[in-house]
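Severity: low
Component: inverse-folding endpoint
Summary: output formatting inconsistent between runs
Steps to reproduce: submit the following structure tokens with default settings.
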């Protein structure tokens, strides 16, 4: 495998923490009446069946005035915010900006010396239909298990500079944090589960096909995930196993673009039930009191879904002053992110059932 200095930097951090992490895992397993080797079996499943998901909004306009999906088709690879100038999280693609600084802290200044910037996704362990980090996009690429070997991982988002970091070879610290959260709060990765239920679910979920995943409930996890940083280029024709798309794009130009991209890249396109919400249902105590007004302006016939938010993004791209009466131009961009977060958290899914509660 090609050498990735960024991975080596993460392993230098993780290696001296391994022994203590294994002790933490052993303590949780003992208190949960589970066998000491269960996490070793989980790590082996990750090697064989682990999947990283890269979430994105396919229809957002990039600085060249084209949909994100069109830029990916032209390049034949997944594009980061350093390529698109867009982000569904913290946007700072400039040299010396916050992202540049925390990447340097995580990866030993490697990316300040050039090279393909890391692509940010999440380890898809729970296998909910909406993917592991839906706050970052309505659609997601599922990468082939082979890509896991050039990923680094952190428990929760890297902008927090978490200490629990690792690679496929050194995952104990990350998994210890996951199990401890499950033990202490009866939930992990947005999934309501104590460690026995969590371990049983992961053992089943990792071996299931995509069809099974798309029949699972949406987990709706906005903030709780194992972040994956993919190092090197993510080529669509080599690294992608499938594209999971929000069904609000069926029959649209964006849906047709995604189908062409899948055909050209040789991977499958699967549709999932996406969230919908009437603008009148938006709360005023989630992402601020302006949220209901933003929703009314973005909605299509009063209804919000992923496609409606994409259409609103294009209206704002064509007329940046459109929502200026609510605040400065940055509020409109941020408002679309907030509206998507509200859809993830409160939206209705056709035929959706709630996750089974912890035992």
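Observed output (run 2 of 3):
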């Amino acid at each position: 495998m090609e050498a990735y200095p960024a991975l080596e930097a993460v392993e230098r951090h993780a290696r001296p923490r391994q022994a203590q992490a294994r002790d933490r895992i052993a303590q949780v397993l003992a208190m949960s009446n589970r066998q000491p080797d269960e996490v070793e079996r989980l790590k082996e499943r990750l090697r064989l069946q682990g999947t990283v998901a890269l979430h994105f909004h396919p229809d957002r306009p990039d600085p060249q005035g084209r949909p994100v999906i069109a830029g990916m088709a032209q390049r034949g690879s997944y594009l980061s915010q350093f390529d698109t100038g867009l982000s569904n999280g913290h946007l700072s693609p400039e040299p010396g900006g916050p992202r540049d600084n925390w990447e340097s802290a995580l990866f030993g200044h490697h990316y300040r010396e050039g090279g393909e910037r890391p692509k940010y996704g999440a380890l898809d362990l729970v296998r909910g239909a909406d993917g592991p980090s839906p706050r970052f996009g309505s659609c997601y690429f599922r990468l082939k298990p082979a890509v896991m070997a050039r990923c680094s991982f952190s428990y929760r988002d890297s902008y927090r500079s978490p200490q629990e970091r690792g690679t496929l070879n050194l995952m104990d610290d990350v998994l210890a944090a996951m199990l401890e959260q499950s033990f202490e709060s009866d939930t992990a990765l947005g999934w309501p589960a104590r460690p026995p239920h969590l371990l049983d679910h992961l053992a089943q979920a990792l071996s299931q096909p995509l069809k099974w995943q798309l029949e699972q409930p949406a987990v709706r996890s906005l903030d709780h995930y194992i972040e994956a940083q993919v190092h090197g280029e993510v080529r669509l024709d080599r690294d992608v196993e499938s594209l999971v798309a929000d069904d609000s794009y069926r029959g649209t130009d964006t849906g047709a673009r995604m189908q062409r991209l899948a055909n050209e890249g040789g991977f499958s396109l699967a549709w999932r039930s996406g969230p919908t919400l009437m603008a009148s249902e938006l709360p005023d105590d989630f992402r601020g009191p302006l949220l209901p007004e933003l929703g009314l302006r973005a909605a299509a016939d009063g209804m919000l879904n992923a496609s409606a938010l994409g259409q609103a993004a294009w209206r704002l791209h064509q007329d940046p002053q459109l929502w200026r009466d609510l605040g400065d131009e940055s509020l409109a961009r941020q408002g679309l992110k907030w509206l998507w977060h509200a859809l993830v958290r409160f939206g209705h899914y056709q035929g959706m059932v709630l996750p089974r509660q912890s035992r």
